[in-house]
Amino acid sequence: MTSEQSVEPATSPAETQGPRHAGFAYRLGRGLITPLARTIYRPRIEGRENVPQDGPVIFASNHLSFIDSIAIPVAAPRPVHFLAKSTYFEGTGMKGWLSKTFFESIGAISVRRGAGKAALDALDVQRQLLDEGLAVALYPEGTRSTDGRLYKGRTGVAFLALQTGAPVVPVGLIGTDKVMPVGAKVPTLSERITVRFGEPLDLSPHGAATSGRARRLATDEIMAAIHALSGQELADAFNEAPAQGTIEKIKQALPHERR
């Protein structure tokens, strides 16, 4: 981990080069929202030199707040994409247009959430982005931590990395839950956040993506790297909502691989 870096007013060629399918909203966000957010919130950004300047890369981060998906693109030295639930893009009227434009401007891509086919479709979208040589951000915990602890990682991120060969850059976010706690409507201006980028992880020594053991070991390596960056207390459990009904309780009690 490197010492704190100041926010640079200039951008490198990698920062200004948008993805091939970027539209006006994304270019506006990259050119306007990013420097504005850096100026207002003055984030502490560490380890930017660890991020590969080109080629596919997966940012794997802890997840504390809604603004995590804004903090990572703002701090990263290259464009980053993440998946957002489709309802953010499907609203009507001025409110719907503003929501769609905002999420597009920060690199969000619409996807329907859920298990089964929806989960596979999400992986397909991320794999396509990586095949284009782009960067994607994912949260191995699956959902936000409401108590500040770091939960065990699900294996979807490792599966994607092992399948595509993309390096994984672990990210430790600190303070985003204070800037915008769960349930808050707007972020506060009185707090600063820290974004730490770790050294890229080559997960290929763990084995093939088809191996459950390889996926689990690779996921554990990712989570250990995130923990080293974030310093959070470890929960030693998966972050999942309480089971509803007898069948769901039985499913959670049985050993299975969390994707």
Give a verbal description of the structure.
- Keywords: Acyltransferase, Transferase.
- Residues 57-176 form the Phospholipid/glycerol acyltransferase domain.
- One of its GO terms (molecular function) is 1-acylglycerol-3-phosphate O-acyltransferase activity.
- It comes from Microbacterium foliorum.
- It holds the Pfam family Acyltransferase.
- There is one protein chain.
- The protein is α/β, with parallel strands linked by helices.
- The protein has a single domain, classed as 3-Layer(aba) Sandwich (Glycerol-3-phosphate (1)-acyltransferase).
- The protein is 38% helix and 12% strand.
- It contains 9 helices and 7 strands.
- The protein has helices spanning 13-16, 24-41, 68-75, 93-105, 117-131, 156-164, 176-179, 212-230, 246-253; strands at residues 44-46, 57-61, 82-85, 108-111, 135-138, 168-174, 194-197.
- The strands form 2 sheets. A 5-stranded mixed beta sheet has the order 1-7-6-2-5, with helices on both faces.
- Helix 2 (24-41) packs across helix 4 and helix 6 (156-164) packs across helix 8 (212-230).
- The longest helix is centred in the last third of the chain and has 19 residues, at 212-230.
- The two termini are 29 Å apart.
- The model is unreliable at 1-20 and 246-256 (pLDDT under 50).
